[in-house]
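pasting input
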Amino acid sequence: MEYLVEGILRAVTLILTLDPYVISVAKVQIIVSTSAVILASATAVPIAVLFSFRNFPFKNFLLTLINTGMGLPPVVVGLVVFVFFMRRGPLGFLDLVYTREIMVIAQYLLAFPIILGVSIAAINAVPKSIRETAYTLGARDREVALVVIKEAAFGIITGILAGAGRVFAEVGAILTVGGNIAYDIATPEGIIHVSKTRTLSTAIPLETSQGDIAAAIAFGLILLTITFILNLLVSFLRRRASIEA
Amino acid sequence: MKLKLLGVFFVLFLLTLNLGCTAKEEAKAPSEGAAAQEAQASKEMPKLVLATTTSTYNSGLLEVLNTEFQKKYGVLVEVHAVGTGAAIRMARDGEVDVVLVHARGKEDKFLEDGYGINRRNVMYNDFIIVGPKSDPAGIRGMKSAAEAFKKIAKAQAKFVSRGDNSGTHAKEQTIWKLAGITPSGDWYEQTGQGMGKTLTIASEKQAYTLTDRGTFLAYKGKLDLEVLVEGPVKGGDPTLSNPYAVIAVNPKKYPDRNYELAMLYIGFLTSPEGQKLIAEYRKNGEQLFYPDALVDRENYNQYLPVTIHGLYDEQGEPYTGVTLPPKG
């Protein structure tokens, strides 16, 4: 019990004193996962509009694929990305293995299907009458699309937050492609540990296995706060959406 | 063309779905059987819990030894391959019966603090410095590990460290200390992971790293790295020697740990039979470990803290010696 209380106290101290190692690890996580979500949103939302405005062959099959993609195991995604980008792999010349860039790629692949799938559902849920009214008022495709996106905004944002929740919570993909690497910097106050590709979620099992429980708890607390805020936003939006409906 | 491709994907997709289903159904029956079998085995078979370094496990030697031990004595060995620092920590917490480790300074501390007992030398091999063929720091063939580390640091050539408090990490820190360098900067990266993973990362990044010879030989085929500085096994720098020891957890500290089985295991590893298995073990045709428990005359050094025979601890400092328990 003492162990636990001491661990939590030290963890809180680490966070409050802005311990450079803890901050650098949190920073890498936020930069990587946020970039992945932004890129995934920027590509998934337009494609979702295309899906609900156009008909094309194999549309239902693609929808099934997207739904399957929503549940892709992160470790498998990490493995596939790694195999393509490893030195002997087809994209090895890009020299991206164990960098933040490749972590963004892996997490992008995890977030994209979720944001796409939820966005398609949200856009399809917008009453057909709204589109028809817009068309009869002389709007063009692009304008109608914007109207529909606006109507489906809550659903789309929920999808984006769900994607964010997934990438902030996963370990398998970023561990495999990122390598969980840190390095040391010599400063007048001594050596500081700095994260290169180490994130909150990958640092937790590492620090636990090495016996630095306080650091692990500090990372856990930050990660928990992030996912808590994401979930709070989702439920807030859901309530607003149901009120408006 | 596109349609055809999509068709192919569709078929593949159906196949995977189908496979997934049948695999699930098939997997169910045997896994239940296996679980029952395992439960039965663990009920009947006494179990010894061992914490060890990743090198003994990754090299495949432990599997050979433990299979033979199980055959001979009907004892199941549960292995936690975690690295020396973590292995000793598990032993201190009373989570294991016995450890097989390689960091003399940490071992002595473990014994002095009263958590470990009956340490025996088991075998040795050596550490080597490996790196890319192109060898940007120009350390190939150097006779001193510390000098090689100096050159790597001077060239700021990429170096990947275990950074995980393991025996190999401790040895690496000793060498940096001998070189008079505190490595820092983004050329010096720490994986915090096992030797196999660290070698893979070094190979991908074309970086230098310090490794035990055993794990390197076991992974060699998959790596784009070469041995650049040899250890004592191939006539290289003696500071790169790598002795392994087996230590039982003190039954006075943890009476519920299985001390008898731990001693049985120590006896087995240091017996002519265990030593022969170690000497004969080959990976890719190469010998990974050299037995050193059988001697013509007793090697007393193995029972003494390193200070007494003039060795240095893992940080390269003279060892502080035995701390006596408070009187009374």
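fyi The longest helix of chain A spans residues 20-53.
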